[in-house]
C-alpha cells in the first residue's frame, strides 16, 4: 500500500484498508489480521466490512514504514516499524535504559529530529496516515445507509483513533502544552484527503488539544465495553487515552481521576494483579493489560522486529541492543518482582553491566500499549493534585504491595510524594511507553544522563530537543507551511 502525507494533495492516493473476509470467523475476531483493498462504496455498506476496515487500521500499527515514499521500493528499518517504534524511540531518550550503537542510536543521542531525518518523516507520516483513515471512517459512516447504532459505535471508534494520533503528533512535534499553548505547528484535518486537497495551515496547540478532548469525550459516550479483542479500542481504552491527555493539560484532575478509574475498574488492588512479571511480559491475555499488539507467531513479527522485546531480550536470538542503567536497577528492592536484571556479560564497561529480562522475545510476543497499573498511577497523581494525599498514598501502595511483599505504605507528602509517584511510573512502565520522556516533557523537567551512559546528553527542561522539526516533505508539499516553521 502506498500513501503520502495528508497534505500532499497532488500525490495522495486513498487505498482503503480492509480485511477481506468470506465470513466473520473466530480467527478474525480474536485480533487484527492482514489487510487488502475494497472500494469505499462497498466498505460502508455493511457492518461487518466496516469492522474489517477498522481491523485494518489497527493492523497498520504493526506495519513496516517506507523511509522514501516516492521511490517505489520499501527501505524501512526496524526502528520505523509502527506505533511500537515511536514508543521505543521515546524510551531511548531517557536515563534508565542505555542503547548500543545500532538501531535507535540517533534517538538515544537526541540527534534524530531534523526535517529530512527518518524519525521525523516516519513519525509525521505514520500518525497522519492513521488520522486520515479515521477521517475516512467517520465521513464514510456519516454518508452511509447503515443503521444509527452501527454509525454511532464506529464513529466513536474513529474519533478515539483520531484523538489518539493527534495526541501523538502534539507530543512529538510541538512544545509542552503548558509551556506554549499558542505554538502553531500542527495542521488539523477532520475530512478525508482527496486528489484536490490543499494542506491546511498549522493550528494553535490549544485547538489541537480541544479537538483531542472533544473527540475523546464524544467517543467515550458511544463506545461499548465489549470488543473483538484487546487490540481494539473500547470505552475503557478511550478513558485511558483521556487520562493520559489530562496528565499533559493538567487542568482537570477530577476528570483525570474518573477517566483513570473507568479504565482500571475503580478497584486498584484487583487492577494491578499481573502474571506477566518474570514470564516474559508478552501475553495480551494478562488481566492487567487494557490494550496491546497481538502477535500470531508466524508472519507478523518476523519482518517487523517488534519493540521492546526484540531490543531488550539478550537471552534469545534478537537484536540485543538495550542495557539497564545500574543506578536505575538500584532503585528496586531485592524483593520486588520487577527487579529482573542480570549481569550476563561480566562486562567491566558500566553501560553493559546489566540487561533486563522483563521482556522475552518470540515471534508470538504480544506488546503492551496500555495497562491498568498505569491507570492506577495516573489516579494517584490526580489525587495528589487534588490535595488528597492520603488517597494518593493508598493507590500507590496498592501497586507497590502487589509488586513487592516487603513494601510499606508511603509516609511522603508534598513534592516527595509526587517524586515517589513518578519513580513508581518509571519502575512499572520502563521499556514500554517512553515514560521518562513523557513525564519530563509534560512536567517541564530536564533529562539528565549520569556517567553510566554510553552517550551523555543533558536535555534542559522545555528544550527544543523534546520535539521534532516539521518534515521537509511536508513543508515542500503544503503551500500553507514554509521553512520558517522550524526556525
In short, what is this structure?
With 487 residues, this protein is mostly helical. It has 18 helices and 10 strands.
Folded structure, characterized:
Its main location: membrane. Pfam families: SusD-like_3, SusD_RagB. Residues 1-27 form the signal peptide. It is found in: Cell outer membrane. Strands 1-5 form a two-stranded antiparallel sheet. Strands 2-3 form a two-stranded antiparallel sheet. The chain has a two-stranded antiparallel sheet with strand order 4-8. It contains 18 helices and ten strands. Helix content is 42%, strand content 6%. It is mainly alpha-helical. It has one domain (26-278, 368-486): Serine Threonine Protein Phosphatase 5, Tetratricopeptide repeat (Alpha Horseshoe).
Ordered list of secondary-structure elements with their pairings:
Elements: H1 26-30, H2 40-43, H3 47-60, H4 83-92, E1 97-99, H5 105-108, H6 118-142, H7 148-173, E2 184-187, E3 202-204, H8 205-222, H9 235-249, H10 253-264, H11 268-271, E4 289-293, H12 309-312, E5 322-324, H13 326-329, E6 341-342, E7 355-356, E8 367-371, H14 372-385, H15 389-403, H16 414-429, H17 435-442, E9 447-448, E10 458-459, H18 472-477
Antiparallel strand pairs: 1-5, 2-3, 4-8, 6-7, 9-10
List keywords for this structure.
487 residues; mainly alpha; Serine Threonine Protein Phosphatase 5, Tetratricopeptide repeat; two-stranded antiparallel sheet; 18 helices; 10 strands; disordered N terminus; signal; SusD-like_N
Amino acid at each position: 500500500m502506498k500513501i503520502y502525507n495528508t497534505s500532499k494533495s497532488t500525490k495522495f492516493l486513498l487505498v482503503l484498508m480492509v480485511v477481506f473476509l468470506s465470513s466473520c470467523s473466530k480467527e478474525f475476531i480474536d485480533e487484527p489480521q492482514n489487510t487488502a483493498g475494497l472500494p469505499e462504496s462497498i466498505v460502508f455498506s455493511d457492518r461487518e466490512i466496516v469492522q474489517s476496515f477498522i481491523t485494518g487500521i489497527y493492523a497498520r500499527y504493526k506495519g513496516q514504514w517506507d523511509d522514501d515514499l516516492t521511490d517505489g521500493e520499501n527501505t524501512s528499518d526496524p526502528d520505523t516499524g509502527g506505533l511500537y517504534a515511536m514508543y521505543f524511540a521515546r524510551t531511548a531518550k531517557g536515563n534508565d535504559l542505555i542503547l548500543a550503537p545500532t538501531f535507535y542510536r540517533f534517538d538515544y543521542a537526541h540527534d534524530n529530529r531534523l526535517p529530512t531525518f527518518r524519525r521525523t518523516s516516519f513519525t509525521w507520516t505514520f500518525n497522519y496516515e492513521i488520522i486520515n483513515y479515521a477521517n475516512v471512517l467517520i465521513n464514510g459512516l456519516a454518508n452511509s445507509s447503515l443503521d444509527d447504532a452501527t454509525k454511532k459505535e464506529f464513529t466513536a471508534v474513529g474519533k478515539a483513533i483520531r484523538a489518539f494520533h493527534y495526541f501523538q503528533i502534539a507530543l512529538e512535534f510541538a512544545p509542552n502544552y503548558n509551556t506554549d499553548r499558542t505554538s502553531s505547528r500542527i495542521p488539523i484535518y477532520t475530512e478525508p484527503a482527496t486528489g484536490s486537497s490543499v494542506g491546511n495551515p498549522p493550528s494553535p496547540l490549544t485547538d489541537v488539544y480541544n479537538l483531542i478532548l472533544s473527540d475523546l469525550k464524544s467517543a467515550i459516550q458511544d463506545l461499548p465495553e465489549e470488543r473483538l479483542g484487546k487490540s481494539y479500542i473500547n470505552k475503557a481504552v478511550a478513558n485511558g487515552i483521556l487520562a493520559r491527555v489530562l496528565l499533559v493539560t493538567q487542568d482537570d484532575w477530577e476528570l483525570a481521576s474518573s477517566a483513570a478509574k473507568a479504565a482500571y475498574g475503580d478497584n486498584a488492588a484487583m487492577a494491578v494483579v499481573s502474571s506477566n512479571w518474570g514470564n516474559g511480559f508478552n501475553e495480551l491475555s494478562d488481566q492487567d493489560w487494557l490494550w496491546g499488539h497481538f502477535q500470531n507467531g508466524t508472519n507478523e513479527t518476523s519482518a517487523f522486529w517488534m519493540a521492546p522485546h526484540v531490543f531488550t531480550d539478550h537471552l534469545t536470538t534478537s537484536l540485543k541492543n538495550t542495557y539497564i542503567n545500574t543506578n536505575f536497577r538500584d532503585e528496586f528492592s531485592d524483593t520486588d518482582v520487577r527487579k529482573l536484571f542480570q549481569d550476563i556479560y561480566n562486562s567491566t564497561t558500566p553501560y553493559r553491566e546489566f540487561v533486563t529480562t522483563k521482556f522475552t522475545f518470540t515471534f508470538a510476543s504480544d506488546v503492551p500499549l496500555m495497562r491498568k497499573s498505569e491507570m492506577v498511577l495516573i489516579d494517584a497523581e490526580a489525587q495528589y493534585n487534588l490535595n488528597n494525599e492520603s488517597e494518593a498514598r493508598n493507590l500507590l501502595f496498592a501497586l507497590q504491595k502487589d509488586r513487592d511483599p516487603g513494601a510499606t505504605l508511603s509516609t511522603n507528602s508534598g513534592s516527595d510524594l509526587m517524586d515517589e509517584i513518578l519513580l513508581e511510573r518509571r519502575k512499572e512502565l520502563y521499556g514500554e511507553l517512553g515514560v521518562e520522556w513523557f513525564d519530563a516533557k509534560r512536567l517541564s523537567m530536564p533529562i539528565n544522563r549520569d556517567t553510566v551512559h554510553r552517550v551523555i546528553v543533558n536535555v534542559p527542561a522545555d528544550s527544543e530537543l523534546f520535539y521534532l522539526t516539521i518534515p521537509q516533505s511536508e513543508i515542500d508539499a503544503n503551500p500553507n507551511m514554509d521553512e520558517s516553521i522550524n526556525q
